[in-house]
Design goal:
heterodimer; A: alpha/beta; four-stranded mixed beta sheet; 10 strands; B: alpha/beta; five-stranded mixed β-barrel
C-alpha cells in the first residue's frame, strides 16, 4: 500500500492550474497553425494569427490565455493500492485558492445561482473520482470557460434513433453556438449512460489528443469525421467572421445505456481548450 | 490601419462600415452582467449612475487581476448577447457605443441603428494579447462585484471589428 499525502496532490493541482491557464495545449496550437495555413478568408487568417500570438504572449509572460479562467473541473483516477492521507477535496480547493492568487486567475465563482455572491477565491472546483488498478494517481484538470459551457446541450433521444439524428442534433448545437462560444471549437460528444453521465463523457472527451483519430469503435470515428466535415462547411469560421475552419476536432466517448434510452451530451469548447494532466 | 482617438464623434465614425477593423485609443469602461443589472435598477429608481451613458464606451469584460506590476490581467470580451436584455433600455437612456463578442438580438440591432450607435467586437479569447493594449486601469464603481466591477481602462491601438451600426 503506497501512502500519498494530500499535500502532494495540492501542489500538483497548483502546477496543473498554471499550465492549463497560461500554456495553450500543443495539439491545439498545431491545429490552429494548420488552420491558419488552410484559411483563405483574410479576416479569418488575421484572427487565427492573433489567437496564436495570444498564446505566445500568455506563455511568455505567464498571463492567463483568456480572462475567463473558467470553473475548475478535476477528474481523479486513483489507484486501488494507494492510501491517501488527508482530505482530497480540501487539498484541491486549497491548491486552487493559492494558484488563483499566485497566477492571477479570476474569481469567477459565485456561492449560488440566486444570491450570486462571489466566493472571493475562485473555489470550489468540481471534482470527479474514479478508482483504477495500481498505485498511481492521475489528475486531469480543466478550466472550463462559460462562454462555451453555456452552449452545452443534452438530448434524450429514442433508442431507435440512429446516427443521422445524432449528427443533426450535434450540428444544431454547433450552429446555435455560433460566434458566441469563440470558434474554432473542439466538440466533446458523450453517448450513453444516464443523462448526467452522457454530459460527463462529453466533457471527458475534451482531454483526448486532437488532430489524430484515437482508437475507438468504427461508428464513433465516422461520427467524428462526419461532424468535422459538415461543421467546416457552415462558414462560421474563427470567432464567427466566416471561414473554412469552424471546428478543430470532434471527440466522441460512449458508455453502456438503458434499453429505453439514447442520451446524447454535447459539450463545446472554444479555441482556448485548457486542460493539463499530471501523475503522482 | 484605421485608428480612432476616443471619444467617438460624428466625424470619426461617419465612414465606418460593418466588418471594418479599427484601432481605438482612449478610455473604455468595463461592465457586464451584474453591473448592467445594477445600472438598470439605478435608472429605474431615478438614481445617479456612476458613469455617464452618453459619453461612455461600455466594454463587456471581467478582467483577471493585475499582478506582478502589470496594469491589468487578461482582458478579452465576454459574450454580448447576455447583455441584450438590458441594452435597449440603456440605449434609450443615452448609451451609444458597446464592445463585446458575438452577435446581438434583432431588437438590439434595431435600437443601435435607430439611435446611431455602434456595437464592436473585440477578439474573443485573446485576453493576454489585449492586456498589452491597456496603459491604465482604474476602479470606478461596484468594487464588491470583484471582476464584474466597473473599471475605466485606458487603451492604445485596441483592435475592434465593427459589427452593427
Amino acid at each position: 500500500m503506497r501512502r500519498v499525502s494530500v499535500k502532494v496532490i495540492e501542489n500538483k493541482v497548483i502546477d496543473l492550474l498554471q499550465e492549463a491557464a497560461c500554456i495553450l495545449r500543443k495539439d491545439v496550437v498545431v491545429a490552429l497553425q494548420k488552420s491558419l495555413l488552410s484559411e483563405k478568408n483574410v479576416k479569418a487568417k488575421n484572427i487565427l494569427y492573433t489567437i496564436l500570438e495570444n498564446a505566445r504572449i500568455a506563455e511568455q509572460d505567464n498571463l492567463p490565455l483568456c480572462q475567463d479562467t473558467g470553473m475548475t473541473v478535476v477528474f481523479f483516477e486513483i489507484g486501488d493500492d494507494i492510501f491517501i492521507e488527508g482530505n482530497i477535496e480540501k487539498a484541491v480547493n486549497n491548491g486552487l485558492k493559492k494558484a488563483t492568487r499566485k497566477f492571477g486567475l479570476r474569481n469567477s465563482v459565485v456561492k449560488n445561482t440566486i444570491n450570486r455572491i462571489n466566493t472571493g477565491n475562485n473555489t470550489p472546483a468540481i471534482i470527479h473520482y474514479k478508482f483504477i488498478k495500481g498505485n498511481k494517481i492521475k489528475i486531469s484538470l480543466m478550466l472550463k470557460g462559460f462562454g462555451s459551457e453555456n452552449k452545452t446541450n443534452l438530448f434524450m433521444l429514442d433508442p431507435t434513433d440512429g446516427l443521422e439524428l445524432i449528427e443533426n442534433k450535434i450540428m444544431e448545437t454547433i450552429e446555435k453556438a455560433g460566434a458566441n462560444a469563440c470558434p474554432p471549437f473542439v466538440i466533446g460528444v458523450g453517448l450513453g449512460g444516464t443523462a448526467d453521465k452522457a454530459l460527463s463523457l462529453a466533457k471527458e472527451a475534451l482531454f483526448e489528443k486532437i488532430g489524430v483519430r484515437v482508437k475507438k469503435e468504427k461508428w464513433a470515428i465516422n461520427l467524428e469525421k462526419n461532424i468535422i466535415r459538415k461543421a467546416n462547411k457552415l462558414n462560421i469560421g474563427p470567432l464567427g467572421f466566416g471561414g473554412k475552419i469552424t471546428v478543430l476536432d470532434v471527440k466522441v466517448k460512449y458508455a453502456p445505456t438503458h434499453i429505453a434510452g439514447l442520451p446524447l451530451g454535447i459539450n463545446i469548447n472554444c479555441h482556448s481548450l485548457r486542460t493539463a494532466v499530471g501523475k503522482i | 490601419m484605421k485608428t480612432i482617438r476616443l471619444p467617438f464623434n460624428e466625424k470619426n465614425i461617419k465612414d465606418l462600415k460593418v466588418g471594418d477593423i479599427v484601432y481605438i485609443s482612449g478610455e473604455i469602461y468595463t461592465a457586464r452582467d451584474a453591473a448592467h443589472k445594477r445600472l438598470v435598477n439605478l435608472l429605474r429608481k431615478n438614481k445617479k449612475l456612476p458613469i455617464d451613458l452618453k459619453t461612455t464606451i461600455i466594454y463587456y469584460c471581467g478582467p483577471t487581476p493585475a499582478f506582478k506590476g502589470s496594469v491589468i490581467g487578461s482582458c478579452g470580451p465576454t459574450t454580448a448577447s447576455r447583455m441584450d436584455k438590458f441594452t435597449p433600455f440603456l440605449i434609450e437612456n443615452g448609451l451609444r457605443f458597446m464592445i463585446g463578442k458575438g452577435t446581438r438580438s434583432k431588437e438590439v440591432e434595431k435600437f443601435i441603428h435607430k439611435y446611431k450607435g455602434i456595437y464592436f467586437s473585440a477578439y474573443g479569447g485573446c485576453g493576454a494579447y489585449l492586456s498589452k493594449k491597456v496603459i491604465k486601469s482604474k476602479l470606478i464603481a461596484f468594487p464588491d462585484l470583484g471582476p464584474e466591477a466597473i473599471y475605466c481602462m485606458e487603451v492604445e491601438d485596441f483592435p475592434l471589428i465593427v459589427m452593427n451600426l
